Amino acid sequence: GMFESAIRHAIAGEDYVRAGALISRHWFRYASTGQLASLERWLDALPADLVDHDAPLAMVRARMCALHGQAEETECWLALARSIPHEGRLPDGSASVESEAACIEALSGFGGVKSMVDAATRFAGLESGQHAPWRKALVKMGLGHSAYLSGDIPMARSSAEEALAVISADQHLWRIGALYLLSLAATDEGHPEEAESLARKALSLADRFGLRGMPQATWASVALGLALAEGDRLNEAREVLEGVLSERREVPDLSPWPTPLALLALARVRSACGDRVGARKLLDEAREIIQAYP
């Protein structure tokens, strides 16, 4: 599109400051449609000295590391971004460096559930005057994910519904994330048919827009597996959960939390099918992940 062409031309002409400004301003439209490879290519073309002294660009780097499940690298880039003086909003419309840092911490959950809840609350407060729909969606997603993991299912559902209402039709990955969260809430509320429908809608989006290779697209399969297990369709649930766990073990993701959810669900399925040994192994694997993110 227009911005992609402008970024390419700026890089080709070695106008790296302009290229960096365009990336900082428009990164979200590419990240939300699964075009992470383009973002990474443009960032890699910028001089390291420019990125290391530019808070908005350092924050884009932090976002990219988070999307790839790189917890330590994310923390390093967040620390760098926070250390660079920057007053006011970021070029993409984020309220501040601290607001965007809270957003990343809330959505990734690398610091554990309590840290995730605190970050989501802080993010919502810092963005309270925000009117951009995509920022409202991120606030609601942060609140919803942290609420679900802390056991507040009504809050998780309402936040996901509010997020879905303001996520634009072309922001496919975020729509998948909101549908995933709604599906989880429906499963926990004892509505497996609704949960399955929501999960399949998310999978359909991933298929339609070629996003099956994205780690975040696996969230939909996790939700489907949980819904099938809740509906006592054990063989189908086992097939889906084993498949998605195989994928998630291979590729890091923005959030570690869908994996233990899938492990716990598959453990219940295997136990119900008489495989107690297999179920115990899955519980041990889930425990190891949960203890790593207390």
Topology:
Layout: H1 2-12, H2 16-31, H3 36-45, H4 48-52, H5 55-67, H6 71-83, H7 97-108, H8 113-126, H9 133-149, H10 153-166, H11 172-188, H12 192-208, H13 218-230, H14 234-250, H15 258-272, H16 276-292
Helix pairs in contact: 1-2, 2-3, 2-5, 5-6, 5-7, 7-8, 8-9, 9-10, 9-11, 10-11, 11-12, 11-13, 12-13, 13-14, 13-15, 14-15, 15-16
Shape estimate: elongated
Instruction: Tell me the major beta sheet.
Output: none
How far the N terminus sits from the C terminus, by CA atoms, comes to 43 Å
Global Rg = 19 Å
Strand content: under 5%
Q: What low-confidence regions span 5 or more consecutive residues with pLDDT below 50?
A: none
Order of helices and strands: HHHHHHHHHHHHHHHH
How many H/I helices? 16
Number of strands: 0
Mean pLDDT value = 94
Share of residues in helices: over 70%
Can you give a write-up of this model?
The chain is mostly helical and 294 residues long. The protein has helices at 2-12, 16-31, 36-45, 48-52, 55-67, 71-83, 97-108, 113-126, 133-149, 153-166, 172-188, 192-208, 218-230, 234-250, 258-272, 276-292. It starts with a helix and ends with a helix.
